[in-house]
Amino acid sequence: MQDLTGQVAVVTGAARGIGRGIASVLAAEGARVVIVDVDGELAQATAGGLGGLAVSADVTERASLDVMANRITEEFGRIDILAANAGIYPFADLETLDEEMWSQVMDVNVGGAVRTVQACLPTMRRRGYGRIVLTSSITGPVTGQPGFAHYGASKAAMLGFMRSAAVELARSGITINAVLPGNVRTPGFADMSDEHQRRMLSSIPMGRYAEPEEVGWAVRFLASPEAGYITGQTLIVDGGQVLPEAP
Question: Is 151 marked active-site?
Answer without folding.
Answer: yes
